[in-house]
Amino acid sequence: MLVAALLLSCADRAWVGVVEGEYDDSEDLLPVPVLVGVGDPDQTRGTGAMDADEGHPFKEVDVYVYAFNRSSAASFTKLANSSPNDCLIDASLDSPGSRAGRKAHFNGTDLYVDWVNASASTYYPAGTTDAYDFYAYFLDDCPVASVTRTADRITMPVEIDGARDIMSGRAEFSETSLPSTFSETEKMLLRQRAFSAYTARRGVNPVLSFRHHLARLRFVLYPASEEAHTVVVNSIKVKSRHSGIFTAVARNQEEEGIAFSSDYAWLSLPEADGSALKTDTYHTPLGADLSLPLYERNGVQVGGTVLVAPDSDYEAEVEFFDQKGNGHSGKSVLNLKGTFLPGHQYLVRIAIYGLLEPQVSVNLEEWGTGGYFILDNEDK
C-alpha cells in the first residue's frame, strides 16, 4: 500500500515536507525481480527492415541488456554482482566473465522480455535507494567478436550488409502512465528512484525504447514514357561504408552510434523479408497516365529497403532488362546526393524511360525508430 502523499506533523506544527525514511522500502520485504519491457515496437531488422506498416513488426527478436547504478561514479567496466553495486544486469550473470549485454528475447506479444538461458532470476538490492539506468542494443544477425567496456561507454565492432539493422536503446522514466492516485510527492520519489526495488514495488518498471543508427533507402519506379513498362529492374546496389565501431551504450546518449571506417562495399537491396530481390518482377504498369505530373503517376516499389551507413552521397547501381524483342540488358549508375541521417528513411524516385539513362529524385520520409520516433519538421 502506498504511503499517504503528504506527511503532516502534529496539529500544533506546520507541515515540514516528506520524511524520506517513511518512503523507504524495508529490508524485510520480499525481493523484487527485475522486469524489463520494450516500448512501442515499430522498428526494423536484418531479415529485412522491421516496419509494422509493411507487415514486419519488431517481434521474436533478441536484445542485449545492461543496468548500471545511476551514480556518476558507477563504472561501466564493473561486471554484475561486483561490489559496490555498480552493475545490476549484464551477460556475466549467465556466462561468467562476459562483457556483453544480457541476452533477452522479445516475442512482440508480452510486455516484458524473457532472459535467454538465464542461470537464475535477478532481483533488485533490498533496503537501498540505489537507482539503476537500463540500456540495451540490437544487432540483428550481426556477429560480434568482442565487447569493450570503459568507464562511460560500451563498444563493439559491427558490419552491415544492407538488411541488418543496428539499434541502441534505453529506458526513460515517464509519468504519463502513472495512476492518478499518485501524488506529486510520490511521483518525485519515483522519478528519483527509477529504476529500483522501490519503483518495481509500485509497478513502475523500465521500458526500453530503441533508436536506429543507419539510414534507410526505399526505391520506387515511375513511368516516364509509353515504353517504360517493358523495362524490368532486377537489381539495385548501393555503395556504402559497411564496417565500424558501434558505441552501443554511452552515459551521454549523443555519443551512441556507429563510427564507420573508410572501407566501402556494394550493399544489395533485398526483399522486405531480407531475402534476395526477385528477378523479372519489378516494372512500371502498362497504360500509365502520362498526362499526370511524373511523380504523381502510379509508382512501383522495388523490393523492400536497404540499410546503409549515414553519408552525404551514395553511388547506386541499377540493373535493367528490356523485354522488348529479343531482350536487352542494361546497367545505370545513379548518384544520390543529400544529407542522409541515421534513423531517417529516404524515398529514391526513379523515372524510367526505357533503357535510356533514368532520372532520380530523393525525398525524406518518416521511419519509426526502435520505440518512438518523431521526424523533426526542420528535417522535413
Task: Write a structural description.
This protein is mainly β and 380 residues long. The chain has 2 helices and 21 strands. The strands form 4 sheets. Strands 1, 2, 3, 4, 5, 6, 9 and 10 form an 8-stranded mixed beta sheet that branches. Strands 11, 16, 17, 20 and 21 form a 5-stranded mixed beta sheet that branches. A 4-stranded antiparallel beta sheet has the order 7-8-13-14, with no helix packed on it. It starts with 36 loop residues before the first strand and ends in a 15-residue tail after the last strand. Mean pLDDT is 83; it is low at 1-22, 41-50 and 368-380.
Q: What do the pLDDT scores average to?
A: 83
CA(first)-CA(last) distance: 48 Å
Strand content: 25-35%
Q: Would you tell me the structural class of the helices and strands? A: mainly beta
List keywords for this structure.
elongated; mainly beta; five-stranded mixed beta sheet; disordered N terminus; disordered C terminus
Brief characterization of the structure:
4% of the residues lie in helices and 34% in strands. It has two helices and 21 strands. The protein has helices at 184-192, 197-201, and strands at 37-38, 61-69, 87-89, 102-106, 114-115, 132-138, 148-149, 153-159, 167-171, 207-212, 215-223, 231-241, 243-250, 257-260, 264-268, 300-301, 306-308, 311-322, 328-340, 345-352, 359-365.
Helix/strand layout:
Layout: E1 37-38, E2 61-69, E3 87-89, E4 102-106, E5 114-115, E6 132-138, E7 148-149, E8 153-159, E9 167-171, H1 184-192, H2 197-201, E10 207-212, E11 215-223, E12 231-241, E13 243-250, E14 257-260, E15 264-268, E16 300-301, E17 306-308, E18 311-322, E19 328-340, E20 345-352, E21 359-365
Parallel strand pairs: 1-10, 11-20
Antiparallel strand pairs: 2-3, 2-4, 2-6, 4-5, 6-9, 7-8, 8-13, 9-10, 11-16, 11-17, 12-15, 12-18, 13-14, 18-19, 20-21
